[in-house]
Design brief:
mainly beta, six-stranded mixed β-sheet, binds copper (II) ion, repeat, Immunoglobulin-like, binds 2-acetamido-2-deoxy-beta-D-glucopyranose, about 600 residues
Length: about 600
């Protein structure tokens, strides 16, 4: 009897383990044609060879420390072309079957890879039907110097990219909250390295995940409160590289046939003794993520597109839209070691039913059919909803902020309008887009008189703009500026005390988290004439108006910029399309 129960016990546990090890669904069923998060995922070279120039660096003598990334860019003369077909498809990334948007049949989407100074051309074929929907790609973090038309935000500019900058990023739809439905993928721009490593394992996508369709969630976040509107929905799961398990016993009774347990988690291969580069990307809709790897410290070498002086940590905090490149050396235990990779949604700062994502890391001789048994770092959530300390992240290329020529204070707040809709405001206005009147084109025609709800901040010819954001709302917000890296002078609780963190060389990045009841202070030099979106990157918040347009050098927009023909055509096509059809625009449009 004892023996039997013992055997039964161990059989039970073997069986239990087996259930979590062997994915119950195929990769095709969970992620379509995507290989991200499988042991077959590609690794990446230090740079792409081009025009037979194998062996010589595409960026010549430019370096991460010595070359100003905003004024010096190589011109490689190389164009990298990508063809994206965007379609709906039914997959089950975490075992729960749902309709998503696939790029070339993949979720997450395929990589865009180039060298610093290359030109990237992406041909997007929109085959989204049932229902039809517009789309627009935004090349997150690409500064689009002298090229604001290609930044990809509808009603501001439209479509397709060119590259300046290095390190890692992502592309995503900037059309309503469409990227929460799957329209996203990684972007790797190879540049001069600021730290040595052996193997580039590529993107690690961290995404809060919703079982509802994004359009339904969006409808509910923007609906009047009295008719069930919910501006703060809970995510259902948290995924790494589009994969994760889900406990199907928690789904509604009518939905159980759509749900399969143990869909399978993401796996990564480490080579014993080698140093690996991981490109962490918070590509979610709402959640603040805290990322760690059991037993290993990480060396952070870049934030967003900005290479920084390497520093060691056990946790990296990433708000929506933020990226960090980290190096991890496989030197713990033996060549048969395996460890958990973890990304936890901060439940103090975000709304999640299942906040903890897991993926498995296997050293080269580890048994990849077994789950790791490693123990998590003891790193309690500080609950501030802020990024890791500004003093930690010092850019490789030093830039001291100039004295600002203008300072703008903007408040984040919310209100409920007379029809009961919950709306976010930035500087007193809740933004709403008009897809048919691209602002940049109007400015290009010299028309600078915009409706209040377009929330345009015209900084004229000011060379240096300082912005103080005070967050008087009950949520933290990842604030994202297009067209520039923000020099982040300070962040913290309450009001700014006037001090600057490392005034000789403050942190630069393109998304910065602002705490509840706190502030961020940043500035930028207006070296990029255009109209640049500045907004919260939480999908539901930007949809409900937390957005402004920062205009710089309007005269240059009129006199120096030429509307590209391709863009004029895209706009004409959109006008023709909407002439015959009422576009179902239920949100701010972005
Ligand atoms: C994530 O959550 C697990 C489980 O609660 C915990 O043990 C771990 O310390 C957390 N890690 C981080 C980075 O918050
Ligand atoms: C309230 O906001 C919603 C969403 O932007 C909008 O559709 C509605 O027209 C607004 N109500 C009024 C009275 O302006
Ligand atoms: Cu927000």
């Amino acid at each position: 009897m004892g023996l039997l129960s013992n055997m039964f016990g161990s059989f039970g546990s073997i069986f239990g383990v087996a259930l979590t090890l062997i994915s119950s669904l195929t990769q095709q069923q969970t992620n379509g044609k995507s290989l991200w998060g499988t042991l077959q995922a590609p690794t990446f070279p230090l740079f792409l060879s081009s025009n037979g120039l194998l062996g010589s660096l595409p960026w010549g003598l430019l370096t991460a420390t010595g070359s100003n990334p905003y004024t010096q860019a190589p011109n490689t003369g190389v164009t990298r072309r990508y063809d994206f077909t965007v379609q709906r498809g039914v997959i089950a990334p975490d075992g729960y079957q749902k309709s998503v948007i696939l790029i070339n049949g993949q979720f997450p989407g395929p990589v865009i890879e180039a060298n610093w100074g290359d030109t990237i051309v992406v041909n997007v074929h929109n085959q989204i039907t049932g229902p039809e929907e517009g789309t627009s790609f935004h090349w997150h973090g690409i500064l689009q110097k002298a090229n604001p038309f290609m930044d990809g935000v509808p009603s501001v500019q439209q479509q397709v990219a060119l590259s300046h900058g290095t390190s890692d990023s992502w592309y995503h739809s900037h059309y309503s909250a469409q990227y929460a439905g799957g329209l996203l993928g990684p972007m790797i721009i190879h540049g001069p390295s600021n730290a040595d490593y052996d193997i580039d394992l590529g993107p690690v996508f961290l995404t809060d995940y919703y079982h509802g369709e994004y359009f339904d969630i969006l409808k509910s976040t923007t609906a009047p409160l009295q008719s069930g509107g919910n501006p703060a929905p809970l995510s259902d799961n948290n995924l790494i590289n589009g994969k994760g398990n889900f406990d199907c016993s928690t789904v509604a009774v009518g939905d159980t046939t759509k749900c399969t347990n143990n869909a399978g988690i993401a796996k990564f291969q480490f080579t014993t003794g080698k140093t690996h580069r991981l490109r962490l990307i918070n590509a979610g809709a709402e959640a603040l993520q805290r990322f760690s790897i059991d037993g290993h410290t990480m060396t952070v070498i870049a934030n967003d597109f900005v290479p920084i002086k390497p520093y060691k940590t056990t946790v990296v905090t990433l708000g929506i839209g933020q990226r960090s490149d980290v190096l991890v050396t496989a030197n713990i235990g033996s060549s048969t070691s395996s460890f958990w990779m973890r990304s936890n949604i901060s439940t103090i700062c975000s709304l999640a039913k299942q906040p903890n994502a897991l993926a498995a890391i296997y050293y080269d001789r580890a048994d990849t059919t077994k789950t790791p048994t490693s123990t998590a770092w003891n790193v309690p959530d500080p609950g501030t909803c802020a990024n890791d300390d500004l003093s930690l992240t010092e850019p490789m290329y030093t830039i001291a902020p100039s004295p600002p020529t203008t300072t703008k204070t903007m408040e984040i707040n919310f209100f409920i309008n007379s029809t009961g809709n919950f709306l976010w405001t930035l500087d007193g206005t809740s933004f709403r887009a008009n897809y048919n009147n691209p602002l940049l084109q109007l400015a290009n025609l010299g028309k600078l008189d915009f409706p209040e709800i377009w929330n345009v901040k015209n900084f004229g010819d000011n060379p240096t703009v300082r912005v103080i954001i005070n967050n008087n709302s009950p949520a933290a917000h990842p604030m994202h500026l297009h067209g520039h890296n923000m020099q982040v002078l300070h962040e913290g609780p309450g009001q700014w005390d006037g001090t600057i963190i490392r005034p000789t060389n403050p942190q630069r990045r393109d998304v910065q988290q602002v705490r509840v009841g706190g502030h961020i202070v940043f500035q930028y030099d207006t070296d990029n004439p255009g109209v640049w979106p500045f907004h919260c990157h939480i999908a539901w918040h930007v949809s409900s108006g937390l957005y402004a347009n920062m205009m710089e050098h309007p005269l240059d927009i009129k006199n120096l910029l030429t509307l590209p023909l391709l863009l004029a055509q895209t706009c004409t096509q959109w006008t023709l399309y909407t002439a015959n059809k009422v576009v179902n625009q239920i949100d701010s449009g972005l």
